[in-house]
Structure formats: structure tokens, C-alpha cells
Design brief:
Elements (H helix, E strand, L loop, with lengths): L5 H10 L9 H4 L30 H12 L1 H9 L8
Helix pairs in contact: 3-4
Length: about 90
Amino acid sequence: MYATNISMAKQYAGSGNADAALTAYSLVLHEAGKVLPVDPSLYASINQALGVVAASKNATTAKRFAAYVLDTAGQAVLEKHGYARPQL
């Protein structure tokens, strides 16, 4: 059975309609059941980016949010939810 996205894969496994699911660690980190992390040497990491849109009506707030995410406290929150610290 193939899911159309990682959330659906998680739902299939959680409902018992699949015996296992390959999904994002951040989606299952705090879930019941057995979670087996995949060795990072077996896949290429997904590079994600953070940006502030220059024409944003909320540029000041967006810049404060970006600063928080890149700060120690923001990095700790991301790590707590299964995301690796960025290689800056």
C-alpha cells in the first residue's frame, strides 16, 4: 500500500491499516508505538530554508521569528521536535 504523503502513511500505521510506515521522525517522535530511526548515512538530508519576504507587511515580526529560530532557544525547540540543528 502506498500513501500519497507522509501524514497519510502515519495514519495508515496508526489505524492498523499498515504494519509499518516510513515517515518523518518529527511526526512520530512523541507517538506511542515503536519508532526506529533510519541511519542518516543511508539517505541525503533534506535541506530546508528560512527566509523573510522583503515586501511582507509583517517584516519586523518575521525577522524577530527568524532570529528566534536561529537562536539557541529556537534551536532547542526544533531539536525537541525531531529536527537536526542546521549546519551554518
